[in-house]
Amino acid sequence: MRQHLRFYRHRWFKVWLAMTALSAALIIMMEAVGNHAVRPAAFFYGAAAGPMALLVAVHDRTGIGTSVPGVTLVGMFLFGGGVALLLGGYFDSLLIPDGASLDILRVGWIEEPAKLVPILALALTGRHLTKAAGVALGLSCATGFAVMESMSYAWKNVDKDSAVGAGMVLFTRGLTTPFGHLVWTGMVCAIAFEVWHLAGRVVVTVTIVCAFTVAATLHSINDGLLVLDVPVSVRLLFPVVAAVSYWLFHRATGDLSPRVPGGAAALAVRITAPPGLQPPAGAPPGRPA
């Protein structure tokens, strides 16, 4: 419990605080001197604060950031997230003409598949089929999607209110999107890539279909609670949906752990193994005598 209460010491919190503060500073400066050229930067830092904090927290817990080359993760963030937003935006407009109606409950069944398309395209090549790699790719694509979507909402709010109002939208979404877009896609990828790694190829199983169904349902319920005209008592279920979503993601990735360097592994063997099983000097790390 003491460690949980000291969250302000963790890297993820420092990342979130620094990016949020920088976004707020840019917005304040923009309103004070009227320099609107910095608006995209202010919106980007605000939109990315929450998702980037979650990425850091997950990497520190699981070490997934080293499972895929950095250039691949950046590409999935930039282009995978962009393709997902392209597909999601098109089909949202096509199938949900009135965002305030019950049609909003279709959103999860549109945007969740859209985020999986770039990931599936890479998985079909046979590369990066490990569970750790799948989670890293899923979170990268979902982060790109969430950041660009949050920026679009902020831009809409500027037309109605001001940059300060847009900043509040970014702050709110920065607290919610990590427990939405990122964990939904991350959970599906964790389950799917675990199956694909064992099979050696992309296959469709009942387990994967069930995981996707849960993610899409949680996504639709989340959006319905935010958009539909429901009683306040029902709207209070929003944090419950977020908590359940994160819990499912945490359970799906609970078996992932950071890679142990060779030297650390060898030291662990020498410390924990009985004297007769310790490797001799010069033996390869981790191999008993």
> How many domains comprise the coordinates?
1
Helical content (DSSP H or I, runs of 4+): over 70%
* End-to-end C-alpha gap: 42 Å
Global structural class? mainly alpha
Characterise the protein shown here.
With 289 residues, the protein is mostly helical. The chain has one domain. 72% of the residues lie in helices and 0% in strands. The chain has helices at 2-5, 11-33, 39-62, 70-95, 107-123, 131-160, 163-176, 181-199, 206-227, 232-235, 238-252, 262-272. The relative contact order is 0.12. Mean pLDDT is 86; it is low at 262-275.
Summary, kept brief:
The protein has 289 residues and is mainly α. It has one domain.
Keywords:
12 helices, transmembrane, PrsW family intramembrane metalloprotease, membrane, transmembrane helix, 289 residues, PrsW
Write the layout of secondary structure elements.
Layout: H1 2-5, H2 11-33, H3 39-62, H4 70-95, H5 107-123, H6 131-160, H7 163-176, H8 181-199, H9 206-227, H10 232-235, H11 238-252, H12 262-272
